[in-house]
Amino acid sequence: MPMRGLLIAASGLVLAACATSTPPSDPEAFDRQATLDLVQALSRDALFGRLPGTQGSAEAQRLITARFEAVGAAPVGDSFSHPITYIPDEDGAGLQPGVNLIAKVEGRRDDPHTLVITAHYDHLGVIEGEIYNGADDNASGVGGLIAMAEYFVANPPRHDVLFVAFDAEEQGFGGARAFIENPPIPEAAITMNLNMDMIARHEGEELWASGAFHTPMLEPMLEELIPDTPIPLALGYDGSDPDQDDWTRLTDSAVFFERGIPHLYLGVEDHPDYHGPGDDFAKIKPDFYLGAVETALMIAIALDANLTDIAAASEP
User: Fold this and answer.
1) Strand 263-267 to 190-196 pairing
2) What is the C-alpha end-to-end distance of the chain, expressed in Å?
3) Can you spell out the DSSP letters for 193-205?
4) Which residues make Cβ contacts (< 8 Å) with residue 249, sequence separation at least 6?
5) Alpha carbon distance 89, 69 (integer Å)
6) Where are the beta strands (DSSP E) in the chain?
7) In 3D, which of 187, 237, 231 has the Cα closest to residue 206?
8) Strand partners, 264
9) Which residues of the chain have pLDDT under 50?
10) What gap in Å lies between CA 152 and CA 146, rounded to an integer?
């Protein structure tokens, strides 16, 4: 599919819905302890780094599915589990099996537009005898994914929302590529991707939103939220600043970008334990992490409120 054309702010679109969307403002927006518990459970040594196709990965799938069920999200089709095959980055490797986990919350409107919220649950496994637990990368994003599902079950969105826990991100975005090549809904209905990958460590003190540069109408929406986010939210790392790295193609949201689908990628700057054996739950600061989840949820609420305008601005 060719890249969809973008209408810039001069198109006259007004983000009125953003101003009327209500961000979460109380501890009951999602179960904070359950969110932390899931991140801790996913990053235990007993899961051996959640490498695709292993028993640790299967246990991660069980934990995530149990939380989808507990918060009341619905499966897509007969099961939350959607088997995939993917080709890893390694030269000479053939097709490998994996499993994406997909849940859904139906919107209040009869509307074709769908928000797809994503986070990968796999990690690097065991390397030279050391377990790479991937607490920040990316058990943290999965915790946020379930928290959003919990919120939207209790507060039904305007539009349908899919919640996808991808497998095989560390192997060349295998789960995301399998999803976009064989989506469970028509690809034309996928209006926006909100992806979380590493949202729990705060060496830089802020959560970054990458991707608005590619869909300019998202910038004023995010800027309107910034004064009220519980942790600092910054925009960038998307080609907008030549002095910054560009994160556009560094995680699963890249496959949506490649199809011309607007995206936002929420993450933190690299820390000393990135892709290392020290990425453990004990190094996560709960207050920052839970604030990051709430900030991500505020963004998701605003995206849902503006999804029709985002679709209009993305038409060729």
Assistant:
1) parallel
2) 11
3) EEEE---S--TTS
4) 257
5) 33
6) 74-75, 81-86, 96-105, 114-120, 125-127, 130-132, 160-166, 190-196, 207-210, 233-235, 263-267
7) 231
8) 194
9) 1-20
10) 10
* DSSP run (H or E) holding 116: strand 114-120
Token reading at 65: 């599915």
The token duo for 111 is 């509307």
**How does 88-97 read in b/e, with b if 16+ C-beta sit within 10 Å?**
beeeeeeebe
pLDDT at 7: 32
What integer pLDDT is reported at residue 89 of this predicted model? 74
Q: Which of 233, 181, 173 is nearest to 205 (CA)?
A: 233
Per-residue model confidence (pLDDT) at position 2: 31
**Integer CA distances (angstroms), 41 to 47, 72, 167, 176, 310, in order:** 9, 20, 17, 23, 36
* Three-class DSSP category at 291: helix
CA distances to 115, 235, 262, 286, 293 from 309, rounded to whole Å, are 13, 20, 12, 35, 25
Q: What amino acid occupies position 305? A: A
Say what the pLDDT of residue 244 is. 96
Residues 77/48/138/142 CA torsion (nearest 10 deg):
40
Amino acid (1-letter code) at residue 249:
R
pLDDT at 14: 38
Decide: helix, strand or coil at residue 271: coil
